[in-house]
Design goal:
With 162 residues, the protein is mainly alpha-helical. The protein contains ten helices and no strands. Helix 1 runs antiparallel to helix 3, helix 7 packs antiparallel against helix 8 and helix 8 runs antiparallel to helix 9.
Length: 162
């Protein structure tokens, strides 16, 4: 990990004590140290705006970070955060599409798969697809169940919004 990333991590670690405005300012100052169009700087800036509830400012920065070739694991994190932002901007359909694409591109059991399923479940719920939302959540949970994963998966498959 380089010095810049250490300083970014330290700024995030202090976020709860600093508050939203100071955190945004700290992250944007660090991002300004990087070249224009730097994927990591764009991602961290988007996250800062998102943290402060400024989703409309975060969205284009997440997209720019992804377009700039953000590397893993930040790429998956940015996709999940962008989906959450879209959900907060009342665009849950786009959120579900992004998360489904992310999950389809990842191997089974990918580190952030559970996170992606959770945000997809929230967006599906927002769309009024309550059974599909529950199915999404249960499907993500089933592999972690100690004894009844097969039953949970079977019951989840039977859920219907009709």
């Amino acid at each position: 990990m380089d010095d810049w990333q250490r300083r970014v991590d330290a700024a995030w670690d202090a976020a709860d004590d600093r508050g939203e405005a100071a955190t945004v300012a700290a992250i944007l100052a660090l991002a300004a140290e990087r070249p224009a169009g730097d994927a990591a700087a764009l991602y961290e800036s988007a996250g800062a705006y998102d943290y402060a509830g400024r989703e409309a400012e975060a969205e284009p920065l997440y997209r720019a970070a992804l377009d700039a070739g953000l590397a893993e694991p930040e790429r998956s994190r940015a996709t999940i955060q962008l989906a959450s932002t879209l959900r907060n901007l009342d665009r849950p359909e786009e959120a579900v599409e992004l998360l489904r694409d992310l999950l389809a591109a990842q191997p089974a059991g990918a580190p952030l798969a559970g996170d992606a399923h959770a945000f997809a479940a929230l967006a599906l719920f927002d769309l009024g697809l309550k059974a599909e939302a529950l199915r999404e959540a249960l499907t993500a949970l089933a592999p972690h169940a100690s004894r009844y994963g097969r039953a949970i998966s079977a019951y989840a498959a039977e859920l219907d919004d009709a």
